[in-house]
């Protein structure tokens, strides 16, 4: 049986540092209350002052939208992709190191932002990446300047590059980047075409007994997606895009011809998309890869 009291509403700016400072203040007070010495009094006053300072800083960041400049700076370390030519700069994956306190604040905003977006159905039903209950995994008051004035340097060994200002896209290494990206990429497909989106990995499919119908519907969808990407600053990579068709009978159809950016997509018998798929859906390549 409850006491009938409503739970105290959490302060949006309250974070782990505030909780830790408050615990240290209470611990110091408990020690001073049991042993009222001058040293314990000084320690309690120091813990109380520290807790006030941390609360004020956290509250100011949330309410006044004032961010430390170090929170908007990142150090990017390029990591070579396994099995790729290290001489090619395109075969490196950038890993951005940002402020730990900044990540903590972003996680607070991210939790509220995702809840608000899910409750209002803002995400595309095709999107499965980084969403609760879809993969292994009140909105925030975040000022736009926090996302726009981002600076990064590239570090190779002990050498740092000059400053680069990020002019477009989501911040590399930010906790909020994934949610902001999938929110931006919410694009609906034609009714005859189905799709699955895992962050930026996108697949579309169409089923029919007529290959011409399949080609026409997929081409309409690709044209619509390409127009949307051109208008919103995205680029679809031809080198990473392939075509697969599934049919129980051999030799019944010719390979489909799907055009992307004026180039015919190559037809493959295997593809990686959250696993390895083969054209006969035996999943043998996937099982062999797991072994």
TrEMBL record:
<protein>
    <recommendedName>
        <fullName>Reverse transcriptase domain-containing protein</fullName>
    </recommendedName>
</protein>
<dbReference type="InterPro" id="IPR043502">
    <property type="entry name" value="DNA/RNA_pol_sf"/>
</dbReference>
<dbReference type="GO" id="GO:0071897">
    <property type="term" value="P:DNA biosynthetic process"/>
</dbReference>
<dbReference type="InterPro" id="IPR052560">
    <property type="entry name" value="RdDP_mobile_element"/>
</dbReference>
<feature type="domain" description="Reverse transcriptase">
    <location>
        <begin position="155"/>
        <end position="276"/>
    </location>
</feature>
<dbReference type="InterPro" id="IPR000477">
    <property type="entry name" value="RT_dom"/>
</dbReference>
<dbReference type="Pfam" id="PF00078">
    <property type="entry name" value="RVT_1"/>
</dbReference>
């Amino acid at each position: 049986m409850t006491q009938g009291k409503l739970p105290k509403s959490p302060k949006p700016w309250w974070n782990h540092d505030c909780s830790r400072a408050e615990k240290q203040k209470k611990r110091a007070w408990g020690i001073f209350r049991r042993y009222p010495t001058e040293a314990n009094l000084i320690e309690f006053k120091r813990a109380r002052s520290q807790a006030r300072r941390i609360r004020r800083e956290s509250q100011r960041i949330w309410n006044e939208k004032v961010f430390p400049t170090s929170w908007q700076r990142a150090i990017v370390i390029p990591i070579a992709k396994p099995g790729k030519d290290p001489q090619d700069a395109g075969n490196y994956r950038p890993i951005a190191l940002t402020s730990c306190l900044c990540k903590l604040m972003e996680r607070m905003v991210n939790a509220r932002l995702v809840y608000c977006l899910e409750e209002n159905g803002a995400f595309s039903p095709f999107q499965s990446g980084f969403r609760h209950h879809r993969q292994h995994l009140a909105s925030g008051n975040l000022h736009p300047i926090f996302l726009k004035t981002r600076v990064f340097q590239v570090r190779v060994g002990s050498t740092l590059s000059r400053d680069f200002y990020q002019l477009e896209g989501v911040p590399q290494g930010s906790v909020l980047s994934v949610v902001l990206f999938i929110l931006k990429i919410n694009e609906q497909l034609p009714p005859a075409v189905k799709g699955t989106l895992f962050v930026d990995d996108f697949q579309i499919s169409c089923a029919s007994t007529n290959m011409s119908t399949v080609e026409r519907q997929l081409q309409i969808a690709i044209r619509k997606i390409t127009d949307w990407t051109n208008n919103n600053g995205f680029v679809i990579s031809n080198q990473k895009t392939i075509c697969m068709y599934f049919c129980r009978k051999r030799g019944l159809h010719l390979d489909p011809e799907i055009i992307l950016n004026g180039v015919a997509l190559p037809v493959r018998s295997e593809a990686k998309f959250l696993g390895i798929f083969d054209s006969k859906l035996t999943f043998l390549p996937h099982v062999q890869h797991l072994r």
